[in-house]
Amino acid sequence: MKAGFLIALMEQGLQMFIVLLIAPAAVGITRTVKARFMRRQGPSILQPYRDLLKLCRKESVIAANASWLFRAAPYLIFALTWVAAALIPTYAAGLMFNWAADAIALVAILGAARALLALAGMDVGTSFGGIGSSREMMIATLAEPAMLLVVLTLSIAGGTTRLPEIATFFLDQPMVVRVSLALAFLAMVIVALAENARIPVDNPATHLELTMVHEAMVLEYSGRHLAMIEAAGQLRLVAYLSLIACLFIPFGMARADSSITALLVGLLVYLLKIVAGAVALGVWEVSIAKMRVFRVGEFLGVAFIFAFIAILLSFLTQELLG
Amino acid sequence: MNHAYDISHFLAGMMLVVSFALIYQDRLLALLRTFALQAIVLALAVAWQAYAQERPHLFITAALALGLKGIVIPYALGRMIAKLGIHRDVEQVVGVGLTMLFGLGLTALSLMMVLKATASASSLAREGLAISLAIILLGMLMMITRRNAVAQIIGFMSIENGLILGATGARGMPLVVEISVAFSVLIALFVFAVFVFRIRERFDTVDVEALDRVRGDRR
Predict the structure, then answer these.
(1) Count of domains in chain A?
(2) Rounded Cα gap, residues A261 and A282, in angstroms
(3) Residue A246 to chain B, least CA–CA distance (Å)
């Protein structure tokens, strides 16, 4: 009993720390892929780790009129994002805290982190922070309903909103062509791009006043606070990649009560999935241009429409076959 | 059998998505290409039904859909757009976002209605009817919201795509009827073409809003 408890705790702990460990590497891989496509050498994949270390060592400059919120927000954002990333089933479905991995709770946790970031952006009172916060909230109001609809589409199919159970349900099913799942996947990818401030919505590599969204909010941060926010951004990317992998390509994931070999295979497959996702993101980012901020609404509207059609079609299938 | 359902569901769902793309698209040439895509998906769906239900005459319907609506009509409309010299944007009465929301509502409505009304029919027929009703309503929505005459023609043609999809899912539509429908659509295209060129000659635009001026008691 006690040994079993310890092993379960270790498995959950492994999941929590593996997302933390690979998060900077995922961003590093995306940057390297982009650099290679532009025929540049590009920094090493380990560069994001070094950046985080450097930021932690540097002095943190805080504006004189900053409130306690400004200082607390980076840690809270990091903690919330880490909780979200740790809850999403990555390499195994039957972990200890799986009862908490509810899709709607997950959306709420990520939403709370975003709300904190928007508040922190406005705290010092610079105009850029305000622009960034207002744009971020505009994107959020459009992306969150679409994401909830995607999750509900899968929940209708799986009969639960708990992520590990949905993943196991799709693992048990034979491979089928489901147009609703394909649409839900497209909608999810669009939402993930918007939420992670990736290229058609926001460019993570520039500080151009007219276009920046995410960077505008964190402009006032430096030192260890900036390190926390950067780490949270990397964790969020890994969280969304894991979520897509868990919901749409759960193959290779270890089930509940499986052997050590199954867990190892699950871990390896999960790492491969994240690497594939990071490479795909890099290829996607070099192939298209950034949108105007005011067209983002249309882009996310497409995600909403896709998710809604997906839910209608899955309802139709359910009525006809179920 | 389940396999047959999966693939027909996939193709019908794709047609629905393309219908939404038609409403979303506001450039005429791209609209035309989207319409051709819908016809090609329709041809695939009909061909799959022909194979799955073992009704070989449906292959003729599929070939008609592909040949007429996938190739001939888009080509003819493309010539028409080129001759009219209107490669510009399509004007719309209401914004795209609102139209899309209307479209979603219509789709939900038609699914609910058909599922309630046809409880005793086979699942293939119910599926086809539900999605084809949605496509028909979306085509009508497109005809209402667009003011450009060419875009309205495309809306009309997509209504016809929906009809064919519904007819192939349900048993009983004779081949003669299908062929005559296909050719009457072709005739309709000629009528539309003449009509559009006349509108253009008379009013110097293909915006049907201009026709309101003909009515004396406007506003």
Answers:
(1) 1
(2) 32
(3) 23
